[in-house]
Design a protein that fits this description.
Layout: H1 2-7, E1 9-19, E2 27-44, E3 50-61, E4 64-72, E5 90-93, E6 98-100, E7 110-120, E8 132-149
Amino acid sequence: INTLTNIGSITFRVSQLIDVSLPNNMRADSSTFKSGSLNLVINSDFLQNGNITVSIPSITKNGMVLSQSSPFSYNNGNPFNVANPGNPAATFDLTGCKADFTNGGSSFNKLKINYTVTINSGAAAPTTANRLFLAPLMNDLKFQNLFGYFGQQQLAPDIDTVALSVFENVYGLGAFTIVNPEIKFILNNSFGLPVRANLTKFD
């Protein structure tokens, strides 16, 4: 407070470790995003304006660390609402970005975000009760590739039918017998991991 009053501005740095939520206890260590965004909502009850620089060292695009600066201002005392936090002050387009979720090799499903905050002196002196709220929200994530441990996942494709072309030109009624019939199913997948399929119904 004294530094802000005497010098006119103060800069400090903080870090935040956020969870990247994935279904069914999947543990991701890296990925390339096909699309999606990370929105940062800033809410301040300081009577001063300022600027915040957001840097995400574990997300890169074209070899460059994802970083962005955004100004913030006093919000007239409106409380911060996690369920409805308001409009984002900064939006990161994650399309084509590469991400490392290991927090330096020590974990999984984690992203570290660094903040550099500058608060400028205003008409009123700040107090120890003033707060600056930062809410990073990841939205509409789609992955071009995703690496990690995914356990065993159950997939239930829709029921399908297969046309047998051998009967295309058959007219009228009749019967025939096939000796030692055999139907071969060839299954391919693009998941990048082994897949086993079971046929539960064949009519």
